[in-house]
Amino acid sequence: MLAVSFLLNVLPLTAQQRPPATPLITHDPYFSVWSITDNLTDSDTTHWTGSPQPITGIVRIDGKPFRFMGHHPDDIPAMQQTAHSVTPTHTTYEFRQSGINLRFVFFTPAFLSDLEVLSRPVTYLTWTAESTDASPHQVSVLLDVDPVIAVNERSQQINSFRNQTSSLNVLSTGSQDQKILNRSGDDLRIDWGYFHLAVPKDAHYTTYLASHPATAFASTGQLTTTDTMDMPERADHSASALSTIIDFGSVSQPVTRHILVSYTDNYAIQYLQRNLRSYWQRNNQPVDQMLDQAEQQYASLEASGEAFDKDLTADLTKVGGEHYAYIAILSYRQAIAAHKLVADANGDPMLFAKENFSNGCIATVDVLYPSAPFFLFFNPKLLEAQLLPVLEYSSLARWKFPFSPHDLGQYPLANGQVYGGGEKTEEDQMPVEETGNMLILVDAVARAEGTPQLAQRYWPLLTKWAEYLNTHGLDPETQLTTDDFAGHLAHNANLSIKAIDALAAYADLAHLLKQETVAKQYQSTAKEMAAKWIAMAKEGDHYKIAFNSPNTWSQKYNLVWDKILDYNLFPNSVRDSEVAFYLTKLNLYGLPLDSRADYTKLDWSIWTATLASNPDQFNAIIDPICRWTNETPTRVPLTDWYDTKTGKQVGFQARSVVGGVFIKALSDKELTNKWRAKSTSTH
User: Fold this and answer.
1) Cα–Cα distance, 662 to 671 (Å, whole number)
2) Do 352 and 415 contact (CB within 8 A), yes or no?
3) In the predicted structure, residue 15 carries a pLDDT above the cut 60
4) d(CA 241, CA 142)
5) What is the mean pLDDT of the chain?
6) Strand order in the sheet with 64-69
7) Mean pLDDT of the 226-252 span
8) What is the pLDDT of residue 488?
9) Following DSSP, what letter does each residue of 213-267 receive, concatenated?
10) How far is CA 426 from CA 400, 410, 439, 491, in A?
11) Which of 135, 213, 511, 660 is least enclosed by beta carbons within 10 angstroms?
């Protein structure tokens, strides 16, 4: 593995950047558009599922057309792409052609410290054109959006129309049927609400509703001045695109223009039969006001975004090195875009994750567990906003089991568990897994917020769960874990660690609630279990995958909370011996999950690397992962389940669990306190 580390260390980070897929528009599981090729012109843009959602960009330079975005029309030559970079909130492309440098930026102000802006479904697209040969050049740009972006499939009927706000001219499109929250599923796009293309009210911008705009613009630089009025129409390739022509005039010095793209959905999530609005709509703010506000704040948000990106990148590099920072940056917007932030009836935030390309479940507990470090690092209120719906549901009489549920339904309908036996049987449930997850995370929130109010509100429920783990946690019977793709496993050593730390979490919560007798009892139990675990799992120089399975090993990623939350139940020697053993098992693209297969999990591998006691060990696990991000042959939004020898995706993509990458940053208390302090009030 020294060769891998050496290769990566001698190459500058900018030379290595080749994301598996590049985030362009990243808001929620329905409004999430990506590029899956190195060059923006090598393919059409797609939804994270891979379903085409083409956005086309053509530039005319002194009357000659060139593509800068999209694969079609392929008879228009592509501009030469000279640069491509991803920062936490920006994706930037640079092109050069015929004496012009064109800088094209996607900016999503995804600041976890500001829930108002975070939930606002607006991405800014900004172009800067500049002469490279000291001569002026006539420049204009066409951007057109295929209306399929507003429906699940092309067979559906759409209506497109134009509106205006006080500061913007707006083109909108949406399904004719507008069946709000009409179905759930995994490989689905939204087909209610409206997509908006908004441009400043300025002579430099003209908007059009016309079919085949790229061909007309390439030929004449103009489009027909009449809008298509035959609505509804089928969302096929001949449908009216939402288009704008942006005039840059005679360009010598830099000229900058921007537009807004947005998707508004009226109602976003159904929770226990209640339809909930997006958080930005909690006070019934009209769409036109939201768009005007976004336009007014463009300059200040852009400045904040640039400062945010620089600051976060520097801190991630400081805490984990360049390769770690790169992986975390690739994860940033993806982790957010797999969630939907809504408001409960009283205006409180609720954050729902979608289990993308797994089974489409909503509020899956063993999905919010791996993503939790992301929210604990930036804004613990957002983790509380994920735990709250699960705790509320678990307290209902309909949930009759003594352990935590796995999920609340299938996205976007959070009306009750659908996984395994649902609410009826214990078949294929994950009792120790999910119960351990919830107790650990409730304690993590209490520590982060400096108050156990969430635990106090649901104390009888948490007590029932702690009692369950006290009985079943040390040596779990045959059951699934979060790694359910690997099948059922009895006597799972890593799952046992989770249960033990969860009992320590309950003890800590009891202490915070001044229930000292309970705290001492459970703290003592957790310590006793940890001592037993060492004896049960030990096998020479490492620890087994299961207590009854000799000649095996596994990543003990759950150990990471023992240090981060200061439980200190397990001696350092357990971590040190495990990490030393892992370093003998590394493959080209990372550390396998366990001794059963060559595949690994991205999130767990970073948790495991965070167990390392020095940077060399940490980098030994991180460097192959960084190499994988740049060499994987599977071009999808970051998968978290891949083969460590071939680099190919095994399953899953675009999931929120990549937020787990931020566990290394979270392990630095000083850094965590710095970023948490940036969070503003959620109301």
Assistant:
1) 12
2) no
3) no
4) 11
5) 94
6) 64-69, 55-61, 137-145, 241-251, 205-210
7) 91
8) 60
9) HHHHHHHHS---SS-----SEE-STTSPEEEEEEEEEEESS-EEEEEEEEEE-S-
10) 10, 19, 20, 18
11) 135
CA distances to 141, 213, 233, 385 from 221, rounded to whole Å, are 9, 10, 26, 49
pLDDT band at 54, cuts 50/70/90? very high
Q: How far apart are CA 549 and CA 554, in angstroms?
A: 11
The first and second tokens of residue 235, run together, are 């969302």
553: alpha, beta or left, given left = phi > 0 and alpha = psi -120 to 50? Answer: beta
Angle at which helix 493-512 crosses helix 431-449, to 10 degrees, equals 40
| % of the chain surpassing 70 pLDDT | 95
Secondary structure of residue 277 in the 3-state scheme = coil
What pLDDT, on a 0 to 100 scale, did the predictor assign at position 520? 98
Contact 27, 108 (CB under 8 A): yes
User: How far is residue 49 from each of residues 38, 110, 635, measured CA to CA in Å?
Assistant: 18, 21, 11
Residue 577: the pLDDT is: 98
Calculated CA dihedral for residues 384, 185, 269, 604, nearest 10 degrees? 10
Say which amino acid occupies 202: D
Q: What is the mean pLDDT of residues 127-137?
A: 96
Half-sphere exposure of 542 (CA within 13 A, CB side): 22
Contact 431, 420 (CB under 8 A): no
Q: Residue 398 has what DSSP assignment?
A: T
pLDDT surpasses 70 at 321: yes
- pLDDT confidence bin for 226, thresholds 50/70/90: confident
Q: Please tell me the predicted confidence (pLDDT) of residue 486.
A: 59
Plot region of 630 (φ>0 → left; ψ -120 to 50 → alpha; else → beta): alpha
* pLDDT for position 5: 37
What is the distance between the alpha carbons of residues 183 and 188, in angstroms, rounded to a whole number?
9
Mean pLDDT of 381-396: 98
Please give the average per-residue pLDDT across 69-91, as a whole number. 96
| Beta carbons of 408 and 273 less than 8 angstroms apart | no
**Count of CB atoms within 10 A of residue 133's CB?**
10
Provide the 3-class DSSP secondary structure of residue 129. strand
Give bridge partners of residue 138 from the DSSP assignment.
Answer: 250
Residue 14 has pLDDT above 70, yes or no: no
Q: What residues does 162 pair with on adjacent strands?
A: 171
Nearest-5° Cα angle at 118, 117 to 122: 70
Digit-coded pLDDT (tens) for 515-555: 999 999 999 999 999 999 999 999 999 999 999 999 999 99
Strands (E), 265-408: 269-271, 274-276, 339-343, 349-353
Cβ–Cβ < 8 Å for 130, 100? yes
Half-sphere exposure of 324 (CA within 13 A, CB side): 28
As given in the structure block, the two tokens for residue 462 are 């948490």
Going by their DSSP bridges, the two strands 413-414 and 269-271 should be labelled as parallel
CB 529 within 8 Å of CB 523: no
Q: Which amino acid would we find at residue 473?
A: G
How high is the pLDDT of residue 681? 43
| N-to-C CA span, the chain | 50
* pTM above threshold 0.90: yes
Query: For residues 282 and 120, what is the distance between their CA atoms, to the nearest angstrom?
Result: 11
> Residue 650 in contact with residue 357, Cβ under 8 Å?
no
* 206 has a pLDDT exceeding 70: yes
Give the C-alpha separation, 199 to 168, whole Å.
Answer: 5
